Amino acid sequence: MKTFQPWHQYPLISKQLKKVNQCIMDTIQTSYADLQNALLAMADNGGKYLRPSMLILAGKASMPEKETSTTIIQLASSIEVLHMATLIHDDIIDDSDRRRGKISIQARFGKDIAVYAGDLLFTHFFDLMLKATDNHQYLVKNAQTMHAVLNGELGQMDERFNMKQTFNDYLADVKGKTAALFKLAAEEGAFFSGASADRISALASFGENIGIAFQIIDDILDYTGGTKLNKPVLEDLVTGVYSLPLLVALQDEAANEKLVPLLAKKREMTKDDIKAVQTIILNSSAIDKSRQLAKKYTDQAIAALMTLPESSARTILIKMTDQLLTRRI
Amino acid sequence: MKTFQPWHQYPLISKQLKKVNQCIMDTIQTSYADLQNALLAMADNGGKYLRPSMLILAGKASMPEKETSTTIIQLASSIEVLHMATLIHDDIIDDSDRRRGKISIQARFGKDIAVYAGDLLFTHFFDLMLKATDNHQYLVKNAQTMHAVLNGELGQMDERFNMKQTFNDYLADVKGKTAALFKLAAEEGAFFSGASADRISALASFGENIGIAFQIIDDILDYTGGTKLNKPVLEDLVTGVYSLPLLVALQDEAANEKLVPLLAKKREMTKDDIKAVQTIILNSSAIDKSRQLAKKYTDQAIAALMTLPESSARTILIKMTDQLLTRRI
């Protein structure tokens, strides 16, 4: 099987993404040979390298004349490794069999190994970060970001089956579990390229806004995307995680009346019940309204980019943002 | 119920351990209120604070005139939080219902929450470490220690059901999963008290050796300690983790002959099979030989301490080391 090479996607940074890939492959180290191979395969295969791409492009967009440094490569790698660690642990929670088109670590090695495998990658995240920089302010920012990610995940767990959840509760969790890492990537890319405070803060704002939009679209696709890759549809709903489309539908009186008795069954919902919830949402204006909200965040992301000088990197970032709104998988 | 106060155990450092306790309580932060309370209870209740004690005492033993600094308190707290994180994840692997005399996080909240709860504490470990110091060499040492712990756990998983496992394989895993953290604690205590290179290395050696002895005794108690608290007896054996007493018994021809057909059943071993394995080991010289080996490591730990000047802290560390050999729970 041909290895998927994410760096083909963005020729402007293909050389750099290749280095990121090499850096990650060189970093992963465990005495458990089978697991080592599985982690290397996961790192090498199917990842879109979205976060590393964003970090490198943020560097180039904020300082178009600057060469990408080794520090930037190591930080981009650290963020992808942190992302991989959270994916492995998420798959335990979600009981997912597939990840990036391959059998997941938890399905192949069991949940026990998957717990430690994720932990191992957390340690590699810190290795890489400490190799990249001794800037204390940014080391602290990294620790805070990891905390925000976990706290977002835990906040979401705490809200399970809560029909009274507000949009602000949802947004707080999304800012943590998804947007914090995008924000860090874009901000670090700018800071470690030596950009001015204004540009760093523009990139941070871009990262956070695109991260929120990314998660909203992900949650929309959970309801609309029957063909969504690598993830069983509506798994969130089954486990009591009520994402934006459902929360919006619950605001609609007619939809609410039909949804409440179904949701009240909680874990006892049958496949037909779940299908019914999906149909109610698709027949309401919830998907449209959710998409409008995602657009609000991509608009803000683009507005932040527009404060930067014109450059090829900025053009790609704008294109990535636009594509986000129309992605179907 | 009266809260267990570990700092009563060592009057010389009771004030400092109280501060460690406060520092940990102030650090744990999540928006999931029930989990927050459970983590605070875990931090406050039943922990022996063995590693923080060792760190603080290592500081005092290496620099008897020096007051314990805030840095030392924060590092001692960081090591206990890292230890808590590994305990929470270990309980997922072992399916343990009890921890520190209370219901475990995984039994109370489910494995899903426990995965994230351990991850959350990993982030607090880094928070505290970065709050304590910007010494890059020691930040890297912390990341390496976390890597050693995980790699030791994974090495052990990789060796499951392997009857050909050597003592060196066992030792390598123990050095990682248990001794690395003791070594770091003792070494950091000395370094951050401003001790000389000789004393730092003596304390590092003390920490590693006592850590190895600690794990050997733990593994002996798994076979001998029918009354062992908070942990089902022989759970390691059931999951295919062959610890020192079993590996030693397998070296004995007569015991080997009886053990091999039982162990060959792997996960299919019945309760009677497990009891039979235990009886074979108790009737062999394996426990004695394992205990002799533990003594070799506590002797080395004490030899390292004897290179330090006489002090009350050194006296306590020697006493702790002696007690280790005779502990029954």
TrEMBL record, chains A, B:
Its cofactor is Mg(2+). The keyword Transferase applies. Keywords: Magnesium, Metal-binding, Transferase. GO terms for biological process: isoprenoid biosynthetic process. CDD domains: Trans_IPPS_HT. PROSITE patterns: POLYPRENYL_SYNTHASE_1, POLYPRENYL_SYNTHASE_2. InterPro entries: Isoprenoid_synthase_dom_sf, Polyprenyl_synt, Polyprenyl_synt_CS. One of its GO terms (molecular function) is prenyltransferase activity. Signal peptide: none annotated. Belongs to the FPP/GGPP synthase family. This is Polyprenyl synthetase family protein. It comes from Lactobacillus xujianguonis.
